[in-house]
Amino acid sequence: MKNILFVFISLTTLLIMSCEDEAPGAYKESYIVNALLLVDMPISEITVLRSLPIFDKYNNDSAKVKNATITIEGDDNIFNLKYRLKEDGNEGYYAEDSIYKVKPNTLYKIKITLPNGNVINGETTTPGRISWVKKAKDYLQYPKDSLKLPSTDTISWNKVTGNDFYLISVSCLDTLQYGKYLTPKTEELNRRVYFPIASEKRYRELTTISPIANTHSSVVWAAFKWFGLHQVKVFAPDYNFLKWFIQSQVKQELDPLLSSVQGNAYGFFGSASLVADTTFLLKNQP
Amino acid sequence: MTRILNFTIILLFLHFTILLSQNISLLESNYGSLSGIVRDSETKETLIGASIYLEDTKIGARTNVNGFYSITNIPPKDYNVKISFLGYQTLNVKITIKKGESLRKDFELPISSILKDAVIVDAERDDDKREINISKVNIPIETIKNIRVGGESDIFRTLQFLPGVLTSSQISSGLFIRGGSPDQNLVLLDGATVYNPTHLFGFISTFNTDAIKNVDLIKGGFPAEFGNRMSAVLNITQKDGNRNKVDGIASIGAISSRLGLEGPTPWEGGSWFISGRRTYFDLIKKLLPEDPASPIPDFGFYDLNAKFVQDFGINDKVSISGFMSNDNLDYSSLGLNMNLDIGNKLLSSKWTHIFNENLFSTVVASYSNYFNNFIADRSGYGILFKNSISDYTLKGELEWFDSEKFTAKFGFETSKFQFDYLQNFTGSTDSTQQGSKGGSTNFIVYDHQSAMYSQLKYNIDELLSIQLGLRINYCSLSNLVTYDPRISLNYRLDDKTTIKASWGQYHQNLRLATQPDFSFFDTWLPTDSSVGASKAEHYILGLESNINKGYTFNFDVYYKKMDNIGELNQNSLEASNTKDVFFIGNAYAWGAEIFIQKKFGKLNGWAGYALGFIRERIDSINRGEEFRPKYDRTHDFKIVANYELNEDWDIGASFFFQTGQSYTGVTSRTQIYLPDQNYGRSKVIPSQRYGLRLPPSHQLNLTASYKFKMWGLDSKAIIDIYNVYSRRDILMRYYDTSEEDTKIEDVRLIPILPTISLEIKL
What we know:
heterodimer, A: 6-stranded antiparallel sheet, globular, B: mainly beta, 22-stranded antiparallel barrel, 5-stranded mixed sheet, 50 strands
């Protein structure tokens, strides 16, 4: 009897001690900086977000920090940034000097002072300019054999000194209209390219971005979610932007090693030069 | 200071060796000796660990891994020699030892037709309590065959039922032993290292149980004869084959079918064995209707074991062992074509020579290769991986049976490693530039690693034995010499109970880059000048007792300190040396294990409980704060039981209950955007790394086998029920933040899986 009791107590103890932990609900505030300088463009759309409790309904508006003090120093200038909501719907911190264009191969430093007094710092050296060698064709024909999908074109660009990795971005500019971009124009509406995607948001995401360690790429059909008018961009990113890209695409948990800002925050202060072009993806069975 | 200490240890060690040999040589002259080989009487397979004792004395020995024994310094007179081995009938032979005579006597033991308890108790009583086998577990191959997953018996799955042996999940075969990761375990097959012992991306091991004769696992404190690993040794010996007649075994299971054949060579004193296993999903798939838009991937694996053994006289034996395994996955649809090809190739030859009753030698020359190749193409954008490790090793060992009091082993090991790395993420895989730059890596690294060791065992008196060892390692790539002193003690409290203790240092010059959950692209890397060798220190105290009716009881407490260990840097885009691939840090583990085992009898199996703690500290992870790794499980209770109902029916069960796996919680969530993205990606902010626990893991498996005759052949039908009460353990927990409301999602493992398999003895 004693033995049975001993075994019972031991097993019960084991069971209790092996119990799972409850899912955490305790909220701890973090700040996330999204600051990208684009060569030959004004300083714009820098955002600072406050992380929100995990089990509250997520609302991006309430995450936005609109009253931080942000300055960017570089190219012998100090730029003060102000929070703005633009007419096109874009918002964020913009340089008061909207004429100034970010220079290539130049060091810039950011200082963000949060309303609670926390200071976040970062710096980036902008890459050199990038240029096209071969743009995508004006019209690309999606292959009829949608299983094999051989490539029919390539794009290429000049190597930027110091850059081994580039990011190719493909954005659908009009998910509704198709025929109006053809010559002659038609009334035909746009539609999706068939490809199974699980997540609703990724299904609706207009832009796909992929890395490439090369200065040319075949046209990868999986980059297109819709037919019709697209914008193709190639970024030459600095290392901070490249790390943040990995954070965005690969890891679900924010990783301090992929951030490039200091001061108890996640995020990046990075830069890139870019080239952009438009192309039109023809349906395989018009 | 460290160098002075190292030299002091070496000097003391040599001094001790010389002193002992001088003292012992004085004892020798007026005595005789007995030596030989112990075999199975039917198949003539050599038996590992058989005991040979002179009755009414305390003089005896055990056979080594080659079946050889030696008893020296025997006072001349008539003796009754008792030869016993678990599962075999005990043999009693009268011999006369004469002064100065070296008697060579080989014994053959008949297998016990009914494994009655009496036989077992007899064998256990003769067990040598002075064997210093701390933390060593031997599992009978019959028990291994009774533990199955999806109808497949498997060595690694069986080892996972030992206390203190953990996996990252139920679908992983990687063994985490006392806080050490799978790459810290030395896996030997007939003396040659196997670098990727798993199939099915880690689900089952590559070792076909039909081809295996003996499995020893040393969970820590292993002697100096084993090196270049920090945690444990899994020493697997393949069957030699039947020297009397050709026979075989065929089986059909749910996952694979196996065929094994063995027989004598045309020359006397030789045998061969060949065994193959293959999956047939690829054959079944051809019968299924296929949707071209959602094709089922082609997947299959096979493995092949072969061994050839030939005696040359009574003192020389040569064996050649071969082993191949391969996993292949093919997928093609929606513009994506990919192929994954993973495999091992191993060839080893072993020459054993008996110089005399005192001296036994072994020379092993081996080649072991592990490769993983992956090629993918998406609309002309290609990705290519071709990584491999090739190990050319020559090792030799002298085993010196000086006396009943003193035995020694001396050995060397020299290996040439070739690491091939070809990785191309540039999209253009036709040619990959030499070196490592911008998404492409193409280089070959050579390394020479050599080691010498000496291992001395001295029975100080009837109660106390000591084993001293020193292993000196040299790695050419890092130009590093490391010293591994090791010491073990054995003290007999009484006829049944022994206390054991062990301390040792263990260096490792190889690292495995692997994902925590899946072994898709496991890549071995050498220690180079960018990182030092990994180093562990083991402290073990154990108690072993033979309790009644063939039950053995073991209790071990241990502390293990690990320095310079690596965790894969998954953020790394380019790597030109080993440091770029890993985050480097330290860890320590401590715990206690209780293990009760009954190897044979109508009821056999074991029960064990382990309490263990593992902690890591790596500067680049968890902001440099200490954390427990994912596979840390504080409590680990396991039980395995097999019962022979009658001559036709055997039943078995295995059960485990362990603390839930660790996972990382979160403190909040956010949304991040890349240029032009309208939705972006949601992210979570992690709390303490692996700071939370999933629910406990537990599982019950049942098996029943029925023996019958089919076409006049001995056959066996086996019914297995894996995960009887369908407890679907959680593989991973993640936070689904793709919508505004966060959902906690669990990826669960397989539910109940009943299978039937059939074995026919040819």
